[in-house]
Amino acid sequence: MGVHLAYNDVHPFAKVNVTDKASVQKLLETVLDPLEPFFSPDKARVKCPGGTAVRFDDVAAQIEGFARPLWGLAFLLAGDGKYRGTDWWIDGYRAGTDPKSPEYWGYPRDNDQRMVEMCPLGYALAVAPEIWDKLTTEERGNVEAWLGNSINEKTMPNTNWLWFRVFANLGLKKNGGKFSKERLESDIKHLDTFYRGDGWSNDGPEGIHQMDYYSSSFAIQFLQLIYAKLNGDDDPERAAEFKKRTQIGALDLVHYYDEDGRAIPYGRSLSYRFAVVSFWGAMAYADVELPAPLTWGMVKGIVLRHLRWWQTQTSLWTASGTLSLGYSYPNTFMTENYNSPGSPYWACLAFICLAVPESHPFWTSKEEPLGNTFPKVKALKHPGHITSYHGGHCMLLSSGQACSYPMRATHAKYGGFAYSSAYGYSVPTGLFSLEQYALASQLGLSDDGGEYWKTRRLCEYAAIEYRDEKPVLVSVWKPFPDVTIKTYLVPSTEDHPNWHIRAHKIEAGREVMTADGSFAIRNVDSQTGRSLELYDAARHEGTSPKIIGNYDVKTPAGWADGRAGAFAASAGAVGIKALEGWEGRQANLVNADPNSNLVEARTVIPTLQHTIKQGETVAYISGIYAKPTGPGEEFLDGWDKPPMVPGWLDSELQ
């Protein structure tokens, strides 16, 4: 039962009325059904359409296609659900672990991608006894040899990967198979060294600062809770500790989701899409007692609203009905070198709620909004974030995080100043001109006249500090050895809910051009489908100044005084103004390359530009405007009322 989407067809995923457990089961079926035509003859591999290469071999990529949807199926079976294709995966287990089979998965090498996929394979064995029960003695021996012996003998990255070996052994243990008790215990003990406090674990050892959705929903917190559920009887002290960490962390993590169901896109692996809410279903699965003021109605609301929001993102599927590489639409610019066409099915983590009994308050509670229950602004010490709920979206300011290895667009995924649930971050499409760099919520500097740009990636210093008893993010960074920048990020306030302030003190040892970008916004006129024109007050849509394209950037009509600023109104409004007390910066609209933004395929970025002479020290104070909700005429109702520059900031920038 494959799916083929013709012109204007809507994927079955978008048609499910998501209200209860049965409807979420149906939603999962619409994710699994399109995979049927892409199974290999013996069912051990799934070759998802896409054809893109990845850093590991094609067989491992097809194992991803087989194993990752198994998360969803395993949750369904653990919750007493049924799926017509269950035997596809059982047959695949047989063939994939049989050295005599033409579809044998192959013995893993050190640091092999196959190890990652052993996590869902191990979990499925642990919770779905029908898999093990249908295997012969010889087939069970094959599974033991491939799933246990092979991974226990190999070197693994010192990251969340170690959890995958834990679950390979745990799956065998739950079925009475041969596993390594010593390896299981040593891995858990080592993973504990990643814990940083207040519920937060780092994705790696001391010296690495990387806390994104891997620290919560994609791996660490999520797998801690499953471990507590499956191995709590044999390891009660650690299970209790994992639950305690979850209770503390939940009061931070709740700030990453808004009332419209959107999560803040931040960090890597966002092709995993709705997996960002798996943490909340895992709390219910592991029978965690919610910390006040959280309720099960709120938790249910976070999960179901998020799934409904993804139902509105109708371009995320391939023509064959499978999940694409990308976020709201197919987009390989934002992917990592480990994202194969089967990788996005890690999204099936979101369906852990299906393993939760229907009698649990997660299902019996009425959905509740988060409302005004939580602080509107909160400093999150360990990830180095300040979150806010002001202005119709949830947003975080960020400083100090960085990926520990070279990654495509790492500066955009971790080094940006602000990330919003309404306006996804943007990634570069190339290395030439501002249009390709797409510097949304970033400060770029160029020492060659604007061809190549450098942005914040690593910080020499980054911390949450306090001014007037309110949190401020301060960082020091060097895009060039002789250019030092001290950046202040000041969150929004009740009086100016749609503004936050970004200030830079720049000491330039060489001449540099600068470009300070606001959020990126949709560059599509709702009536014509073409690029936005000059702002039309009658239709509440357009830009100021004019978008002048990529080849005539010196046209006077495309520029405004920095204090007047630049804005764009379409799906809400975003903009940027110079708030410093001197003239010099100019405002324009950068017509970003298509497919640079995660959420919108065509975007424009209001930007402030300037050139600093060699030996100069300058201070920039930028007011960044963002209002994604309300009737059209209200999108810009705060644009002419920017916040006052705090006295302390003015003083420190002197």
UniProtKB/TrEMBL annotation:
InterPro entries: DUF2264_C, DUF2264_N, UCP014753
Protein name in UniProt: DUF2264 domain-containing protein
Ranges for domain DUF2264: 21-370, 375-651
Any Pfam family the entry gives: DUF2264
